[in-house]
Amino acid sequence: MRVIADAAISGPLPRAGVVVAAALVALALVHPAARARAGAMLGALALAPVLLLAEIWTSPQLGFVHRHPLEAAVAGLLALLAIAALAFGLARHPSWLAPLVVFALPFRVPIAAGGTTSNLLVPLYLVVGAGVLADALPTLLGRGRRPGEGRDAAAGPGAEGRDAAAGPGAEGRDVAALRGADRPGAETWPEANGSGAEAGPGWVERLLALYVGLYAVQSLYSPDFTKALQQMVFFYVPFALMLCLLRRLRWGRALVRRCLAVVVGLAVIFSVIGFVEYATRTLLLNPKLIAVNNVHVYFAINSVFFDPDIFGRFLALVMVLVAAVLLHTRERRLQLGAAGVLAVLWAGLVLTLSRSSLGALLLGLGILGALRWRARPFLLAGVLLVVVGIAAVAISPTTFGLNQGLNGASAGRADLIRGGARLFAQRPGWGYGSGAFETEYLCRIQHQCDTTPAAAQTLSASHTIPITIAAEQGLVGELAYLALVLSAAVVLLRGARGDAARAAIAAAFIALVFHTLLYADFLEDPVTWTLLGAGIVLARRARARPHAVHSEAGELAVAA
Prior knowledge:
Layout: H1 2-10, H2 12-30, H3 34-56, H4 63-67, H5 69-92, H6 97-104, E1 109-113, E2 116-120, H7 122-141, H8 159-165, H9 170-180, H10 203-218, H11 225-246, H12 253-280, H13 287-295, H14 308-328, H15 332-352, H16 355-372, H17 375-395, H18 405-409, H19 413-426, H20 437-445, H21 453-456, H22 465-493, H23 500-518, H24 526-544, H25 546-559
Antiparallel strand pairs: 1-2
Helix pairs in contact: 2-3, 2-10, 2-11, 3-7, 3-11, 5-7, 6-7, 6-12, 7-11, 9-25, 10-11, 10-22, 11-24, 12-14, 12-15, 12-25, 14-15, 14-16, 14-23, 16-17, 16-23, 19-20, 19-22, 22-23, 23-24, 24-25
């Protein structure tokens, strides 16, 4: 029986489990009925850790569990009790969820799995798990909503007709409801009793479900199934559940203000830590980066992050959000505060030496300007900047490191992109399978087919998300990715002009997409899902209640 069990765990069961997990995520994202969504969320939450344990059960990192099962069981019980306590608090105060999610976004814990070490967002997983319990259990039990409460701010299609049928005075009631959502007495999860179906999902949710489903199916023929499984259980499943929770919150002015205050406070603290690192020439994390700094004349900081480019991305996105405040507020105190924060974060961003983050910041600021004023001047300025950059490189290529060649100037990324393009050309339809880029690049491009997982860890995909997707998932995955990015950009940008909160989210999302073209981590970054979750709600509320949102636009700007 043990042999049969081991064969099942190492054979078809994990692959079937990944497909089931993707199906549950799809149901949670797109099913119209609250009870079905709640059941799918709980199922995905329970299945993801089971799949991971089944995959790494015989690995050395679980040696303590095998040697001391009682102690391991006690530790697991304590973790469950902590999640239950947090879930109890979130059930009483759902508005805590968004600030807790934002607070947990940057913190990663190194954990060994499948022969490699991954930096995992363990605090965020705890928050998401507690949020799912707080939302889904009352829904399945049919409790948690008093009559007349719980109307979702993101009412979606059909809300305009209901508002029009409500007669004169409906606009005022909508504004009062939006403001009332910020009062403690109004804190309930929308549709918590599951008696009715919410509005159907939009294209962003459908395309997210499609992409996650494709990734799961294409993991079945991947030569590196372990990597694909880790992507599902570490990133896609928990982040999709997080988006499901965020889109059900009532995103009023107070919630926007709290989240912005949390992320700005974190960014300032992380920048100060980076300044200390630079002054003392020491790093808190990442021994590889320490070694690189020791052999070069420059010194790149990473603060509490494991990678200067990820730290730079975080700072750039926060700067875009703060710049939106600066552009949309007329209060001198807020303007001075925003300018001071931008100065601190700019100094931290420069010390990361992340060129991709600087480019993302410039693009995000350009989008903000185009949404605040007219788009044509910013387009012309962007074209002029590109022309000047090309001219500068042509005049002095040595200054930009091009005397080392394009590959040397890009720290080896040019070779990765060329190799990824060759992999796509060899199998353009379905690709080599989810998570297979590192394995296939080393084997087919560098002819190192016997490389161990630890050695392969030095290779981090192609540093260009479209290239990675093309090599792993072929044209099918590439089309799903492009459709998702374009659909999300349309949803976030449409009607965002003059709205501080929506403009900030749209500009930050586009800046993040640009950064993924030069580095990595698109749907593997929880910030992507967070921006989409908040942006979807604000966009749908703007379409459903245009008059009410028009009255609130100024308040959101001042609150930010």
